[in-house]
Amino acid sequence: MAQPCCGPVFWLYVAVCVCLVMFAGLMSGLTLGLMSLSLVDLEVIAKAGKPEDRKNAMKILPVVKNQHLLLCTLLIGNSLAMEALPIFLNSLVPAWGAILLSVTLILAFGEIIPQSICSRYGLSVGARTAWIVRVLLLIFFPITYPISKVLDWILGKGHYALLRRAELKTLVDMHGNENEKEAYEAYCNHAHNVGFSVRKDHHYYWPTFRKIKSKDFVCSKAGFKKMPDLNFQLKYQKSDTGTGCSAMIRFTVDETEYWKVKKIIENHNHDLFGLEDRHLLRLSRNVCDVKALVLKSMTEAGIRIIDAYTYLFDEVGGVQNVGFSKRDACNFIQKEKNKE
């Protein structure tokens, strides 16, 4: 039954309809804006982006950490708003008018406009509305949590999509005083977030003076073994880990030593490391000073390297917290002996 025009209840229903359209638009826009930002994207931007982008990425990261939970929350919120709108419109106009108005309002102000805005300004809009999403995650948690767990079980938790060229802008936006070490570390940070290791490759010099003109960093699985292994005994032969991966980045350096990205190839032809295995990447393994001192002290006291490594393993709570492998520990001790 339609309410009489211009009464208090009439304007209350109008306000409710406006709020429902705005809420549906927000849910629709955030679904596109937030779900198009993978965890890898946000981690890279949070570490190497512009100051404003870093701030926005840090606000969004906790919200999108569980992507299936976020997706279920946004879709349920959007569905509730769209289903409730015709009910309130039916109290203001005839049934045919309620259907026509709801379709028009949802299409224009609940889908097209918000998705156009969020597709362009997804990072900033997501950061400003992160508190709203947090509240919705809490409200819908009893419903969305079981659904998200089923999706995690069927589809898996991770979203390890490779960064596209536009999303690698944080590697391009480098400061003018960067050197080779900082450029290498920037690509290593990106590689760790994606799940592969990096090694240095070719470099070229300026013809007039002995300074680097360009430098390539490639995936550790680039190329193949050039010569056959001359060790006939199987246990001494080294496995060929190269897969001919073409992923790489090329930095160019001008006369003022300004480093910038010239070329990026992102396609890998091998499996990438997941979040739970990235501590095994070569670039992630490092014998820090404190643990190096423990290894040296224990081996000098006559304790075997394997026992010293096991001690560290038990102390820090797992191999992922040790920071290096048993082979790394043996290599470190051997290098220390060679120095003597």
Automatic annotation (TrEMBL):
Pfam short name (any one): CNNM
Protein name: CNNM transmembrane domain-containing protein
Membrane spanning stretches: 12-40, 95-113, 125-145
UniProt entry keywords in alphabetical sequence: Membrane, Transmembrane, Transmembrane helix
Domain CNNM transmembrane stretches: 6-185
Matches recorded under PROSITE patterns: CNNM (PS51846)
Native source species: Dendrobium thyrsiflorum (Pinecone-like raceme dendrobium)
Lineage of the organism: Eukaryota, Viridiplantae, Streptophyta, Embryophyta, Tracheophyta
GO (cellular component) term, any one: membrane
